[in-house]
Amino acid sequence: MIIDAHMQLWAADSPRLAAAEYAPVRRDHGIDELRATMSESDVDACVLVEADGTSPADTTRCLEVAAWTPQVLGVVGWAPLTDPDLGDVVGKHRAGPGGQRLVGLHERVYEKADDFLEDPAVRAGLAVVDELGLVIEFAARTEQLPSVARLAEAMPQARFVLQQAGSPWITGGAEGLAEWQRLIQPVAECANVRAKLGGLVTLAHWERWSVDDLRPFVDHAIEVFGPGRLIFGSDWPTCRLAATHAESLQAISCLLGGIHPAVFSLTAISAYQLDVTELPHGPRQG
């Protein structure tokens, strides 16, 4: 079975697509295309990660899609962590269509100050997320990893997922590898952190990346996290800036020596507490 734990639905007019480099993917990417992409890559199910990060509306839309799309096993939504009514916001999502598929909240920490996760108000919000039984998910810059490690140590009972394995500087070659290895180590030592292997193609040279460019980073992630704490997430459709969905999946599969059961399904099921019994044809073996 293959679960892609990081797919998104985009609208062409999304503000995050305004930058010039997003021109190749600046169009609608809806549920029909997502399902077709999954079918082409033999992906059984996915976790949707909301794409807006500015209002509850995109989380609501993802949950509504999940309500009538059995292949969408979970939704990682967004809500302002410093909102004193954060619990009520999550409660409204859970009470609406698809609300039972809400499995986590994420934050694009890379857009914030390096000490964002040290803010007491942010920490209070993250405690609420944990108390509600949701995964805490981050996209962070490499230099922010020490802050991620301190947070994970301070909240040992919480479940954390780190997107793109902490965004290593792949185009930096040996220097980028050394920097990331040094900063990811304390994060990996926190048993409550899982990391997503995926989206790495967009951290390499878009036009001329190769599997060998990714190899030392994937090898080290396996070494420090172990397969049981790694999750495949393609970062579709962002990955289309550098590769098709199938190429992104095949790159990770090649580096793992095949479709590793933990990385491609079991870790995601455990981390997000996914119910695979509702898949249209049942969970595929292998």
Beta strand %:
5-15%
Low-pLDDT regions: none
- Biggest sheet, in brief? 8 strands, parallel
| Quaternary state of the chains | single chain
Q: Estimate percent helicity.
A: 25-40%
Number of helices: 9
CATH superfamily: Metal-dependent hydrolases
End-to-end separation: 6 Å
Main sheet: which strands, in order across?
A: 1-2-3-4-5-6-7-8
Element order: H for helix, E for strand: EHEHEHEHEHEHEHEHH
Number of strands: 8
CATH class call: Alpha Beta
Please identify, by name, the CATH architecture.
Answer: Alpha-Beta Barrel
Question: Which outline best applies?
Answer: globular
Tell me about this structure.
By secondary structure, this protein is of the alpha/beta class. It has one domain: Metal-dependent hydrolases (TIM Barrel), CATH 3.20.20. Helices cover 38% and strands 14% of the residues. It is built from nine helices and eight strands. An eight-stranded parallel β-sheet has the order 1-2-3-4-5-6-7-8. Helix 7 links the parallel strand 7 and strand 8. The longest helix is centred in the middle third of the chain and has 16 residues. The radius of gyration is 17 Å and the shape is globular. The mean pLDDT is 93.
Characteristic key phrases:
globular, 9 helices, single chain, 8-stranded parallel β-sheet, 8 strands, alpha/beta, TIM Barrel, 286 residues, 38% helix
